[in-house]
Write a structure and sequence with these properties.
Blueprint: E1 9-14, E2 18-24, E3 30-32, E4 42-43, E5 46-49, E6 52-55, H1 57-65, E7 70-71, H2 94-113, E8 118-123, H3 129-141, E9 146-151, H4 152-171, E10 184-191, E11 196-204, E12 207-216, H5 221-240, H6 248-265, E13 270-277, E14 280-287, H7 288-312, E15 322-326, H8 333-343, H9 356-372, E16 388-390, E17 397-403, E18 406-413, E19 421-428, E20 437-443, E21 453-461, E22 472-479, E23 485-491, E24 496-504, H10 510-521, E25 524-525
Parallel strand pairs: 1-8, 6-25, 8-9, 10-15, 12-16
Antiparallel strand pairs: 1-2, 2-3, 2-4, 5-6, 5-7, 10-11, 11-12, 13-14, 17-18, 17-20, 19-22, 20-21, 21-24, 22-23, 23-24
Bound molecules: adenosine monophosphate.
Length: 526
């Protein structure tokens, strides 16, 4: 990468339904990079035909024709060992499918801007460590140099702030000292195709602080579509006696029809869903009222979480200055109406809900590079090198401790703690000359260990010889700024560091990562 500009840096919003990428212009303004078809967003859909992997619009069209070879909503399965169904008879890991999408984006970007040297990928704030690692691994498999992952709401807030303040002042060449003069507290409501995030961010002239975050990694537009699919399928069954959901092609067609109807209902009071099944066609009428009724429990879930975030930051709605809308589902009028009612404010949809996250990722990357190589970026906005972005952990981090009735979750780092953060706990060896200590690491809020997500086992190994029983071993567990977990162990008797590793529950080892990267080299991604 040329040392003095951002030309090889891209920000990637790897979305459930669509992905988007952005670069920075010489003065640091984020710009969407269109894909090779000239579209600003690329459907995150894959069609796998032998050694050919087709991504985007063409794959989306094939969803109805060849559902058994098509993958949709891969992001929802991130962190699992396998994508929901096999593709052309082959099982794929979600991070490998995501790597294909990233590879296609990288190729498209390189056609436009030349070699991509650095990338920032966004993740839902509510992603746990396993899902974050899977996203980073997808980047590595795709051959990207991922310099950071950043939470989607934080990226969106950065892009909004940039648009509001930075660009305006950069244009007048008076940026220094002109960033937001007073503190502004914004709530970012991000409802995409498959995930929901809500974050409260405090913006000040030189710092972005996330105060609290919450969400649901399996709640998004697809669930709204599902309600319409179920309603239309029931109408079809009542009229014709067979269920279109039982045939993969009819179901794929119905999903698309339901999504189109949902979009139409954002601008019209009523529309129709076409059901095609068993050589029969039926048109199902759907009004906005009925749509709202069918999906109200989903909206209520996001409403309760949104209210909780304000409360858990110790604030009230009076303290929130703005509500920013992110994600395609925020175009739906009931979503906007709910937020208007809840916050007492007009939600801000001034930036493209589809592109704002990728723009924020590019800005974040620019700030990182400006910080790492201060002086090498003469065109960077002056304050970038010193600008601080402070995030929080979206899940409590704990360890399993034995109790009289089983294992409990002993929380070391509570949810919504500002990052980076390190906490220590001292364990004792139980026998003489013990060689290792094992600790189960958990993410989650539940009291019982079994109700939390087990990230893996922390293994303190190769302890010095001849330690007496009950020797103190200190374990330091940290969340990095990217929300990833790391550990350090210390033998307190000698004061020396001891080998400590996290043996993860699932996910790929370094070796497997290399193998996957090799394997996709042989496939044509188009
Ligand atoms: P995203 O993940 O941010 O790309 O959001 C995609 C989700 O937004 C999908 O569920 C889309 O169906 C939904 N969406 C996009 N445009 C609209 C619209 N005009 N009205 C309702 N939902 C929409």
């Amino acid at each position: 990468m040329p040392q003095s500009d951002f030309s090889g840096l891209i920000g990637i919003d790897l979305g459930t339904t669509f992905s988007c990428m952005a670069r920075l212009s010489k003065d640091g303004t984020p710009v969407t990079i269109p894909n090779r078809e000239g579209d600003r967003i690329t459907p995150s859909v894959l069609l796998i035909e032998d050694d050919l992997v087709i991504i985007g619009k063409e794959a989306k069209r094939s969803e109805c024709l060849a559902p058994e070879k098509t993958a949709v909503c891969v992001k929802r399965d991130m962190g699992l060992d396998q994508y929901g169904h096999s593709l052309g008879g082959r099982a794929f890991r979600p991070e490998v499918l995501s790597a294909f999408i990233l590879k296609r984006l990288k190729n498209d970007a390189e056609n436009r801007i030349g070699p991509v040297t650095h990338a920032v990928i966004t993740v839902p704030a509510y992603f746990d460590d396993t899902r974050r690692k899977a996203t980073q691994d997808a980047g590595k498999i795709a051959g990207l140099n991922v310099i950071d992952i950043i939470n989607e709401p934080t990226a969106a807030a950065l892009a909004y702030a940039f648009d509001q303040h930075v660009r305006r002042h950069a244009e007048s060449n008076s940026l220094a000292g002109e960033l937001p003069k007073k503190e502004t507290t914004v709530l970012v409501y991000d409802l995409g195709g498959g995930t929901f995030d809500v974050s409260l961010v405090r913006m000040s002239p030189d710092k972005f602080e996330t105060l609290a975050t919450d969400g649901d990694v399996r709640l998004g537009g697809r669930d709204w579509d599902q309600r319409l699919v179920d309603y239309a399928a029931e109408q079809f069954i009542a009229a014709h006696g067979s269920d279109p959901r039982e045939d993969p092609e009819s179901l794929a067609f119905l999903y698309q029809a339901a999504e189109q109807a949902k979009h139409a209902l954002s601008v019209r009071p009523a529309t129709k869903i076409m059901v095609l099944h068993a050589a029969t066609r039926m048109s199902v009428e759907i009004t906005r009222e009925l749509f709202e009724e069918l999906t109200s429990s989903l909206l209520t879930r996001t409403e309760m979480t949104t209210d909780l975030v304000v409360e858990s930051a110790g604030l009230t709605w009076k303290d929130v200055d703005r509500v920013l809308l992110v994600g395609g589902m925020t175009r739906s009028p009931p979503v906007r109406e709910m937020l208007r009612r809840l916050s007492g404010k007009e939600p801000d949809a001034s930036l493209s809900a589809d592109e704002v996250v990728a723009h924020g990722a590019a800005i974040h990357g620019g700030m990182l590079l400006a910080r790492q190589r201060a002086g090498d970026f003469p065109d960077a906005p002056p304050r970038w090198a010193n600008f601080q972005t402070v995030d929080v952990n979206s899940h409590s981090l704990g360890v399993a401790v034995r109790t009289s009735s089983g294992y409990a979750n002993s929380i070391l780092i509570p949810k919504n703690t500002q990052l980076p953060v390190t906490k220590s706990k001292v364990y004792q060896t139980s026998s003489a000359n013990q060689k290792q200590v094992r600790v189960r690491i958990l993410e989650g809020e539940a009291v019982e260990a079994e109700a939390c997500v087990q990230i893996g086992e922390l293994l303190i190994r190769n302890l010095p010889p001849n330690l007496p029983p009950r020797s103190p071993i200190e374990v330091q567990v940290s969340y990095g700024t990217d929300g990833r977990i790391s550990v350090v162990g210390r033998d307190l008797t000698s004061g020396k560091l001891v080998e400590s590793v996290i043996v993860r529950e699932g996910g790929l080892t370094e070796n497997e990562l290399g193998q996957e990267a090799q394997r996709i080299v042989g496939l044509e991604v188009g």
